[in-house]
Specification:
The chain has 2 domains: 9-19 and 90-214, Rossmann fold (3-Layer(aba) Sandwich); 22-81, no CATH class. The protein has helices at residues 22-35, 43-50, 54-62, 70-81, 94-103, 116-125, 149-158, 172-181, 208-214; strands spanning 9-12, 107-115, 134-138, 165-169, 185-188, 203-205. 41% of the residues lie in helices and 14% in strands. Helix 1 packs across helix 2 (43-50), helix 1 (22-35) packs across helix 4 and helix 5 runs parallel beside helix 9.
C-alpha cells in the first residue's frame, strides 16, 4: 500500500534504521561466545536478534536461559559503551535526509529500546544528536516498544496528534509499536528485517532518497 502522507513529525527507530550497529554488536557477542568456548556465528545471524534487544538478545546469542542473561548483558553494555562508533555505521544519506527534514520544519524523534546512555553516545559520536527534538530510550518508561506509551510520549512532547506522525523502523517490534499506537508505519527494508508484514506498512523503502521523494521534500 502506497499512501502518500505529509506528517508534521517523524519518529525513527535507531538500530537497523538510522545506523547499522550489527558489526559492533557482532564483534562483542562473538568475543563473549569465544570466552564460553562457543563457535563464532555470522553477523547476519546476530542482526536478526538485535531488534529484540536486552536479555533476549543475549540469551539467543549465547545459548543461555533468559533468566541467566542479566550479568552477561551488563558486560555487553559496558563493553559497547566503551567501543568507539564507526562513522561508516550510518546508513547512506541519513545525515542528508535528517538535514532536509529539519529544514522543512519536521519535528524529529527517536524511539529506541537501547538504553539512554548507549543511544546518546552513538548519536553524539556520529554527530546526529542535534537533528532530534526528543529521544525516547529504553528504560525511560516502564514498558519498552512495542508498548504504545513509547509513541505517546513522543506525541505529547512534540504536541502532535497520531495522524500527524509516522514511525520509521525496520523490525516487527517497530511495526507492532506503530500499530499499537495507531500511527502509520514506514518500513526501512534495508535494515534488520525480521519478518515485517509489508502489507501493513504504509510505505516501504530501501534508500533514504526514496523517503525524501515520497514526502516530496526539497
Amino acid at each position: 500500500m502506497m499512501t502518500r502522507l505529509q506528517p508534521k513529525g517523524i519518529i525513527f527507530d535507531l538500530d537497523g534504521t538510522l545506523i547499522d550497529s550489527g558489526p559492533a554488536v557482532c564483534k562483542i557477542l562473538n568475543e563473549m561466545r569465544q570466552s564460553r568456548s562457543l563457535p563464532e556465528i555470522p553477523c547476519d545471524s546476530i542482526k536478526s536478534v538485535i531488534s529484540v534487544g536486552g536479555e533476549e538478545m543475549i540469551s539467543r546469542a549465547l545459548n543461555i536461559p533468559q533468566y541467566q542473561a542479566t550479568e552477561a548483558l551488563a558486560y555487553f553494555r559496558h563493553t559497547y559503551l566503551h567501543t568507539p562508533v564507526a562513522q561508516s555505521s550510518i546508513y547512506p544519506m541519513v545525515t542528508l535526509m535528517l538535514n532536509i527534514m529539519k529544514k522543512s520544519g519536521k519535528k524529529l524523534c527517536i524511539s529506541t529500546n537501547k538504553p539512554r546512555n548507549l543511544a546518546e553516545k552513538i548519536l553524539k559520536e556520529l554527530n546526529l544528536a542535534q537533528h532530534f527534538d526528543f529521544i525516547n530510550a529504553g528504560g525511560d518508561l516502564p514498558n519498552k516498544k512495542p508498548h504504545p506509551s513509547n509513541i505517546y510520549v513522543c506525541l505529547n512532547t512534540l504536541q502532535l496528534k497520531p495522524d500527524e506522525m509516522v514511525l520509521v523502523g525496520d523490525s516487527r517490534v517497530d511495526q507492532q509499536t506503530a500499530l499499537n499506537a495507531g500511527i502509520p508505519f514506514y518500513f526501512f527494508s534495508n535494515g534488520y528485517d525480521d519478518g515485517v508484514d509489508r502489507a501493513k506498512a504504509v510505505f516501504c523503502f530501501r534508500h533514504y532518497s526514496e523517503l525524501i521523494t515520497h514526502l516530496d521534500i526539497q
